Amino acid sequence: MAADAGAFEAGPPGRRARLRLSGLFWRRPWLKALSLLTLPLGAFVIVYIGALAVVFVSSFWSVDSFTSELRHTWGLANYRLIFDTSQPYLHIAGLTLEMAAAATLTDAVLAFPLAFFMARVAGGRTRAILFVLVLLPLWSSYLVRIYAWQAILAHDGALNWALNGLGLPDQNLAYTNTAMWIVFSYVWLPFMVLPVYAALERIPDSYLEASSDLGASGFRTFRSVILPLALPGLVAGSIFTFALTLGDYITPALVGGTGSQMIGNVVYDNFATNLPFAAAFTVVPMLIMGVYLLVARKLGAFEAL
Amino acid sequence: MRRGTRISLAIWSALVIAFLWIPLVIIALYAFNGSTLQSWPITDWSTHWFSVAWHNADARSALTLSLKVGAIVTAIALLLGTMAAAAVARYRFFGREAISFLLVLPLALPGIITGMALNSFFVFAGISISMWTIVIGHCTFCVVVVYNNVVARLRRTSTSLVEASQDLGADGWQTFRFVLWPVLSTALVAGGLLAFALSFDEVIVTTFTAGLQETLPIFILDNIRQGQQLPVINVVAFFVIAITVIPVALAQRVMRDTGLIRRGSAQVTEAVEAAEIPAV
Q1: What is the signed CA dihedral for B213, B215, B219, B224, rounded to 10 degrees?
Q2: Alpha carbon distance A25, A32 (integer Å)
Q3: How far apart are CA B233 and CA B238, in angstroms?
Q4: Is A28 part of the contact surface with chain B (CB cutoff 8 Å)?
Q5: Residue B26 contacts by C-beta under 8 Å, 6 or more apart in sequence?
Q6: Which residue of A has its CA nearest to B143?
Q7: Which pTM value belongs to this model?
Q8: In terms of CA atoms, which chain B residue is nearest residue A303?
Q9: Cβ-Cβ contacts under 8 Å for A162 (sequence gap 6 or more)
Q10: What radius of gyration, in Å, describes the C-alpha atoms of chain A?
Q11: Is the Cβ pair A137, B143 closer than 8 Å?
């Protein structure tokens, strides 16, 4: 046996050292896990988590209104300003939440039948084509897609041309909240289709057969079998649509009107001059998303991501 | 399922797909609009603006910066994402769940938070804005994209392949080269392409980490905002759609390639041969 072990260790010294190292890692898996994790996790924690902590801490500071320098005195003044009803900020946060909810609901309604068709009705080839047709818009430029709607909704754009062709009057949707709602629903739609599709595809056929064998109508099967099993997918999709809308400031800036400011716009306009206030205002969506993620994890959405 | 239900599902699906694609088609057609006015329908078809855009110095330098950042980010994301995935997929340790939760954060938290957090981090740490600050900003979510791809592949791969390779005397490098690499390569290519596409398209985090530098999306944004050189932007938009669509179509093709596990086990034999184990 000793000779065999010797045979394993034969070869140039470099290889012997490498074998020793693999042996060491094999005997102590935690050492390997640690050496693999240190670099990525260290960088991630220092830069990303560190940065989030900086934002959170600075939201309790204030800024000197003359010199624009940070004053490291602790206080809740920034938060009070947000919740002050004489200021526009509560209204802005409300509009942001409203937009996020509207886009999420619209996408769920648009996406579910499509995902259902892809997962349970379409044949292999149609399914593959539909999959690519949903995936490509997701990856094609987000800015360009907003820009496309700017051109479509413009007064002499494609929408009014189509409406006139049908004998309908012009719609002045450009630079309104309706335009924002359309654009948000449009740009995040693929994020909803894909997880819902994944969830629906995983439902075994036998469940549906069992349901109808037990006498359930199509609707009953849908409500009691399909919908509960698709829920993690819907929640996973809504994480994207909700989070992405909460943090967006490009869409309001490009297709929104004067009253269409969202949290992102206020943060963007303030971060250079009044970091503490901007930081406090980002804590609002951070908290909303934190709660949302915890609930989503309870509903099993993470496995569906 | 009743016939009526199937037909209405098909019609609904067709309408939603049309909703997804009509805006892309319209904006692609605008690239061929000879007029400086953005009205529909296009009456003056021309390719004039393609040559104007091609000779636009700002557009060119923005494209160069975007390509550079994209390449660096992809390389870093591949390295760090794979390392983290290898640790999380293979080992059970204290805090493993917390780590997988933390790694979802850059995708789940709004971009404006990531952007502002990084900006204030750079200010506090005294790091001046450069191409590298853009790279750091993009890395936060690109690492996660690669991580997700690789972790999913590793979970589907049986650990016995690695054990077999080690039992047969392969060292760590050989196991990686001949067993893990063939299994992982397509996930890495797909993850890398997606990371590149994400970086190439990123706007929100970039506006906080770029200062006065212009990546291609920032160039587009600045011009749309001010309503300047829109015909040039139309052409750039046309190319951006084409450029992001190609890597994704490729990634799809690569991911569809099945039979990976079988190929992986064939590589074990090869690994054994390469390990020069003396015949007993």
Answers
A1: -120
A2: 5
A3: 8
A4: no
A5: A148, A151, A152, A158, B40
A6: A40
A7: 0.82
A8: B152
A9: none
A10: 27
A11: no
Closest C-alpha among B159, B91, B158, B176 to residue A33: B91
Question: Burial, B71: exposed, middle or buried (Cβ in 10 Å; 0-12, 13-18, 19+)?
Answer: middle
Q: Which has the higher per-residue pLDDT, A111 or B182? A: A111
CB A274 within 8 A of CB B245: no
Question: Residue B254 — pLDDT band, cuts 50, 70, 90?
Answer: low
| Averaged pLDDT of chain B | 82
- Going by C-alpha positions, the residue among A242, A237, A263 that lies closest to residue A93 is A263
Name the token pair of B3.
């016939």
pLDDT of residue A5: 47
CB A118 within 8 A of CB A128: no
Omega prior to A169 cis, within 30 of 0: no
Cα-based distances in Å from B1 to A91, A212, A226, B46: 46, 11, 13, 50
8 A C-beta contact, residue A262 and residue A181: no
The pair of three-digit structure tokens given for residue A118, joined into one six-digit string: 């892809």
- Check B119 against A148: CB less than 8 A apart: no
Q: Name residues whose C-beta falls within 8 Å of residue B97's C-beta, 6 or more positions apart in sequence.
A: none
Compute CA distances A107 → A190, B24, B80, whole Å. 9, 18, 34
Q: Given an 8 Å threshold on Cβ–Cβ distance, is A140 in contact with B113?
A: no
Q: Chain A residues with CB inside 8 Å of B84's CB? A: 36-37, 40-41
- pLDDT 10s digits, A156-206: 889 989 998 998 888 888 889 999 999 999 999 998 998 899 889 888 888
Q: What are the tens digits of pLDDT across the range B66-100? A: 999 999 999 999 999 988 888 887 777 777 777 77
Contact between chains at B120 and A141 (C-beta distance less than 8 A)? no
Contacts of A165-170 with C-beta under 8 Å, sequence gap 24+, read none
